[in-house]
Fold this sequence. Notes:
Elements: H1 6-18, E1 20-31, E2 34-45, E3 49-53, H2 60-67, E4 75-80, E5 83-85, H3 89-95, E6 96-99, H4 111-121, H5 129-139, H6 155-167, E7 173-177, H7 185-200, E8 204-209, H8 212-218, E9 221-226, E10 229-234, H9 236-244, E11 247-252, H10 255-268, E12 272-275, E13 278-281, E14 295-298, H11 301-309
Parallel strand pairs: 3-8, 3-9, 6-7, 7-8
Antiparallel strand pairs: 1-2, 1-4, 4-5, 9-10, 11-13, 11-14, 12-13
Amino acid sequence: MEEHTSETADARVRAHARGSAISIHGVVKRFGEITAVNGLDLEVPAGVCFGLLGPNGAGKSTTMRMLTAQTLADEGRISVLGYELPRESKQSRLEMGVVPQLDNLDVELTCRQILTVFSRLYRVPRAERPAAVKRALELANLLPRADTIVKELSGGMRRRLLVARGLIHGPRLVLLDEPTVGLDPQVRQELWTLIDGLRASGVTVLMSTHYIEEAERLADTVAVMSSGRIIAQGTPADLVRAHAGEQVLEVYGPPERLAEVGALAAEKGWSSRRSGPAVAIMRAETLNGQAPEGVRRPANLEDAFVALTGEEIE
Length: 314
Ligand SMILES: Nc1ncnc2c1ncn2[C@@H]1O[C@H](COP(=O)(O)OP(=O)(O)OP(=O)(O)O)[C@@H](O)[C@H]1O
Ligand SMILES: [Mg+2]
């Protein structure tokens, strides 16, 4: 271990005392005219699966990249596993695993070669490398493909290899940026199982996603990010209750009927939105008597997300 000044050692002790794996305070990141992250405050407690949910361009990937010091914040403070960034980013990187949104694998190497290279980069002791590689291959269900070169893998297998690579050194914290984007439902399920297993073994997971179902199933806490800051945070159930109520009423019909119901909702001050072929009215449990004919269903995280961000999910 390298020497640290007593000041940073103190900061690390404080962060651990608070039980935070990640602490972000007042962080701003600009790209020219664009403010990608705009006064972000975020605490990720150790040992949880934390979901960062937000529409395209909300600043999720930029936040992830600042946590690895691939991008530097213009303002604010970031600490990861008790290390102050960017100054101590080398140390924090060694204890965390990163699965980026974009695939940057070397296509000419085999799965085993890539994992071996990374085990060395992440300072897995030489004698332990073969076992670490095997464990990562198993975890990602890639053992039968260990000696296949990357360009001969399917998209889903490449994605799983990226996950295996991020886990090669047994990190305490894993950052997953849209881990299941573009995957078929079966592979997505497999990755969900894997992520859930990580959390169960005490690893802290920060995951960005715009698949609502993914956040709802996996995350203990969800933060909704919009225009570079957190606009709501809580358990999925809390967010649903707070922003969509208990029930949603879906009214179906031809376009004229939907327009009529939309106008009625606006007049009455009901929170509503178009949802495919229906108009969905939130907090239907409060409508007593004046509600139009429709189908009632329990409110879900997508309703809360749309109510919060005004954006539909594809
Ligand atoms: N390197 C960069 N140079 C210039 N602008 C950037 C750069 N990286 C991100 N941005 C801008 O910052 C904003 C936030 O982008 P970011 O990739 O963080 O969003 P995101 O929430 O990850 O979106 P998505 O869901 O589409 O992945 C966007 O407006 C984006 O165009
Ligand atoms: Mg992104």
